[in-house]
Amino acid sequence: MSTDYLADAGYWTPLSALYLREQQNPETIWLTQPVDGQIETYTWRRAADEVRRVASYLRSLELEPGSRIALLSRNGAQWMLAELAIWMAGHVAVPIYPSLNEVTVAYILEHSDAKLMVLGPLDDWEAMRSVLRPSLPVLRLSGAPGVSVHQPCQSWTRVIGETVPLAGNPDRASEALATLVYTSGTTGAPKGVMLSFRSYAVSSTMLAQIVPIGECDRLLSYLPLAHVFEAAAVFATALRYGAQVFFNESLKTFSADIQRARPTIFHSVPRLWLKFQLGVLAKLPQSTLDALLADPETAEATRRQLLGSLGLDQVRLAFSGSAPLPPSLIDWFGALGLELLEGLGMSEDFAYSHISRSGRARVGYVGEPLQGVERRISESGELLIKSPSRMIGYYEASGTTAEAFTADGYFKSGDRAEIDDLGRLRLTGRVKELFKTSKGKYVAPAPIESKLVHPMVEAVCVTGSGFPQPFAIITLSEAGWMAAQDVAQREMIEHELSALKQQINDSLDPHEHLDYMVLVPDRWSISNGFLTPTMKIKRNAIEARYEPRFMAWSEVGRPVVWAA
């Protein structure tokens, strides 16, 4: 395959794929949706019919072509169908993480100038109910929370029952804007990454470059579809190759949902791979497992049984993204016969960048470039990437877009990196302040640090790259440390900072919540290299000084940790 993916595969969009399957495989089941213990299935015929009806309804609203339509919901069959309907009607999808707080959701709705909200099932609607402008129309998916009686609202079920399907096969141009994916920026305000239909076409080929994919393959959708990782690996892949998609209804039903799906291709993040391991070891001690795997008579049966208990016994391709996998975890699954492949992708290239190849993976590396991807390391050590799936730019931020690219079109990743003699890529740190937690979420520390204002606090550094949640390293003022010598005053400081942490977390998105605050006895100054001449913290110096103690601090389990 050459770098011109559209020329090689023929013109392709998610809509053209839907029309093809509707014609060639109308009665084949595409989507399997669990609902309150019952199973609902969508054939390609039913899926296309509902998409056509919803698209017809959207057309009837007479919105300006290219209007932004927000999608706020947990994953589900109707989520995918709604996005297809938005495109069929000639509009742009704005997927929103269902776990964001109301401040961020309100910002996205306003910044994107969303003309309609597609609202689906959510875990905490009460926390964001106020984001709906009284004039914003709402299309409620099945299981969606209720809205005000004064809110212009229509239900998916009623639209399907009363609307005539849109005729013909309306499609979209390759370079047309398909979606706005909002991602965290260094200022704390999300940036709208503009992705075209060409980006979908390119990224849909990603996994097929590793293993052949077809209609017999099964995928499980459970990570947020608002994230490019899930959108590329599940939605785009399933549309291009006709793979069947199963959905996870909730965290409580995950085990049953994955057993139902028996995925042949499975992607996850380090946190869930670790949960799989801990679930096995809770029932089978490592020493016993080692003995069973070491015995030729029991090894193969043990592998099949354990992978079967996890719902992973049919997996042909297992890969992980969003954050690094611990080498020990890779080895552990490898002993069970499951090779975990790591990759690298960003919102700005629709997750199409690097992935490890079976038999050529190297622990600690994110693999080799996908077809058509060019990369180089700048003089400062920053990874620069030119992906055929790259974004159009940041929405209404031409200056920020220009700053994000080199003069010859390479995206500035913000990652320090190195490449080995076989072309495999290893990330060695961040050039920018933005860091990524072990959950794969980016965190901008400066806005959080600005909230940590307290009479006893002199300076603060928010960090946590590779940990589940960020945490704050704090140096107290001289008065604060003097007060802390008294037991009662020490308890008072701890109580006030705990309350401050809770107050700050209430204003942040879940992935930004501070895990704890650690109070270090050192004084940060210009002379000892922890502060700049303008009294700003030197983040790299502070992190280097305390990094060996991060793990010990995280294991204390208290909101405020007093460092010795």
Question: Would you mind describing this structure in some detail?
Answer:
The chain is α/β, with parallel strands linked by helices and 564 residues long. Among the domains are: 5-172 and 204-238, ANL, N-terminal domain (Rossmann fold, 3-Layer(aba) Sandwich); 442-562, ANL, C-terminal domain (GMP Synthetase, Chain A, domain 3, 2-Layer Sandwich), CATH 3.30.300.30. The protein is 33% helix and 21% strand. The protein is built from 19 helices and 27 strands. The strands form seven sheets. A five-stranded parallel β-sheet has the order 4-3-5-6-7, sandwiched between helices. The protein has a five-stranded mixed β-sheet with strand order 12-13-14-15-16. It has a four-stranded mixed β-sheet with strand order 2-1-11-10, sandwiched between helices. The chain is globular. The chain starts with a helix and ends with a strand. Mean pLDDT is 90; it is low at 1-9.
Biggest sheet: strands, sense, closure? 5 strands, parallel
The class by helix and strand makeup works out as alpha/beta
Under the CATH scheme, which class of the domain at 5-172 and 204-238? Alpha Beta
Number of strand segments: 27
Short description:
The chain has 564 residues and is α/β, with parallel strands linked by helices. The chain is 33% helix and 21% strand. It has 19 helices and 27 strands.
List the main descriptive attributes of the protein structure presented here:
single chain; 564 residues; Rossmann fold; GMP Synthetase, Chain A, domain 3; 5-stranded mixed β-sheet; globular
